[in-house]
Protein 1
Amino acid sequence: MAINRRNFLRSSAVALAGSYLFKPDIQGSSKGNDSIETIGSADDEQWWKFLKSQFSLKEDLYYFNNGSLGPSPEYVIDKTEKYRRTLDSFPSRYMWGGWEKDKEEVRIRVSEYFDTDREEIALIHNTSEGMNLFARSFDLKAGDEIILANHEHRTGVVPYEYYCKPLGVKLVRPVLPLLPKSADEIVDIYRRAISEKTRIISMVHMTNTNGMILPVKEISSIAREKGIILCVDGAQAVGMIKFRISDLGCDYYAASGHKWLFGPKGSGILYASRDKQELLKPLMVSSKWDNINIRMFEDYNTRNLPELLGMGAAFDFNNMIGQDRKQARIYSLKKYFRDQVDGDNRFKIKTPEPDDLSAGIQAVEVKGRVVTEARDYLLSNYNIDCRPMYSHDLNALRISLSVFNTREDIDYLIVALREFADK
Ligand SMILES: Cc1ncc(COP(=O)(O)O)c(C=O)c1O
């Protein structure tokens, strides 16, 4: 059963979703006459503390590393565990057929979240699977070109190196600025990289390096006009920023369930627009290979159904928070963090400031210090986990700001950063 959002917000959801959604302290956080809109607003710190309590992160851990991997809330952990137990109560039934309807319900949840047709959504294992699927699919020949800007994640590059380069296909690698002033600056770089020979553009929606949001929609319209296929890696964007795939206009989109959506580890999403599905060649084929429809990209016989169904619970959890609310909170944390670091000459923020260019990932360099030392100091002295980034001249800590990070957590992080910088 899906979580009832209204009841969650009123924190009286015991009957609907289980006692883990009920914590007496949230009762105190919301004054009786608060409207549903004010409860859990971006600044209702009590409510976000309550939300944090729904996760089972180690008590003394300060986790600023959602960009690497997200924690699942108790709700998702419990649901997934239940699916595992159900599967093992009658393995042959549940693995092959018993959960068909449940699987379709997850597909519907995902398609509603992205505002797409459910026949365009496949339930896969991770973003890497989607990127591999794209790279191996297109019939390219020597001389064709693929645009892969320099901030692509390795998982968006390696498959093209493996499948396409040996055919004599050229990988064109335009260089993006770390701190663009506007999205147009990025669009121009892509426009200049396109040639008569460009067949594919593959791009991240949000870079994992410094959290820069790329203008997929604008590049998509250029690609369509020129008959170029556009594949998008949405590993960092999905669950963090609000968008509709239908608005982006790309041909393909791959994303992870286990980062900003808080889904089980090894759950992912593939979007393939209806008119481009027949170009894709499944990574594995099984008995229904000739039944051309979106399910052919997820039908691997025995597979991780509890995780896949658990991803449905993660969508329920996200819907309960609400995409608007979640995004507003993340932008509010971004501002709170940047206000304390920007202008302090001990630090340099290496993520563009405008909200259309960044959100919950901020890269910060401690000037004159090696990033690995900073990271080790934070972890060993303060139990703060974040990701050190060395590539692209970053030498910066990648700070992920998610809905389970409170302002107090950020204050604690700032104290640690300052102490390290002054050492
Ligand atoms: C931009 C980007 N793409 C792809 C991936 C790989 O994601 P997955 O482990 O879901 O395949 C990551 C992981 O950090 C990422 O940041």
Protein 2
Amino acid sequence: MKSILFVDDEPNVLDGLRRMLRPMRNEWEMRFAASGAEALALLEAGPCDLVVADMRMPGMTGVELLEAVQARRPETVRIILSGHSEMVAVLQTVRSAHQFLAKPCEAETVRATISRAFALRARLRDEGLVALVAGLKSLPSLPALYQEITAEIDSPDGSVARVGEIIARDVAMTAKLLQLVNSAFFGLPRAVNRVGDAVAYLGLDVLRALVLTSGVFSHCDEKTARSCRLEELWRHSAEVGALARRIARAQGCEGKLAEIAMMAGMLHDVGRVLLAANRPQEYAAALARAQEIGTAAAEREAFGHSHAEVGAYLMGIWGLPDLIVEAIAYHHAPGESQDAGFTPLTAVHVADALCDGGADADSRIDAGYLARIGVADALDAWRAMYDEHEEAA
Ligand SMILES: [Fe+2]
Ligand SMILES: [Fe+2]
């Protein structure tokens, strides 16, 4: 049974949660604490899979509590509960919280948010992976793009469109932006899959707070960028994103699905960024070793897990749309997915293989998977799209 700890200083809120979630009592062991101190005492007493903490509490705030939880039990999923009016303050908690819930929240939203976090853990079930990702705190941007966005946002005539355009070129900023707008906190009726929509939705003021004051966006040092070949990775990510969108469009996926394919392509190697930024020396060594034994094997040797698993796990826990998380998780092994037809995963898998593989792209494409989902015939056309793009570049 999963154990969940709810922390709120208002007895009414705790009572409400207790009542609303009673139907879950056979699946979840739920505990309730009225303060951060009480919560930490309960955590000392026994393990806990997930903590939902109120933002504003006297004594220890929700952010302080989640930071303490992160330090003591990094594997615990952390969700912050907060009022709508506290948006900017809550944005600052992004680093210690995995997901957000806005008060007042419906039983179904709370249940779905918690269940989703658990389902993803089940899919990527591995205590080692959970602990590994929990220890990878920083997801930095390229120094040049970080400078560009700071300048744009600082400038008196900074524009939302230009900010969006810079973010769309940066793997880390794209991931964080999508995390923010897809969190239940913003109460959007549907998932947001386009950087442009997300930027327009948040507006320049919130973005300014994010970039300049909250430290959500950060940049890596030049040395890491060089030793881990991050610029190359950024270029590759953008290329895969663009090709995945074209492939999706060619398959008749208009609008949203094509955008999801693009975002998924942009983020498919986000696990590499995480590993490189947080464990640069081991990552650089794994890059060299990959020449001999292949990337996945080299990563498993160094970290116990591949970048696909690492990236999918983090993006899932951040609340990105399932289609994106799945494309990341299976981009090197689409046959292991549940796909029964063309999905953004298909587009990302093929685009990645074409962009990465050059002459031996074919050996990287899972022909059995394409046949299974009934799109094997389309491969030649996709290859032609890639060639066209290469010639143009
Ligand atoms: Fe990859
Ligand atoms: Fe890739």
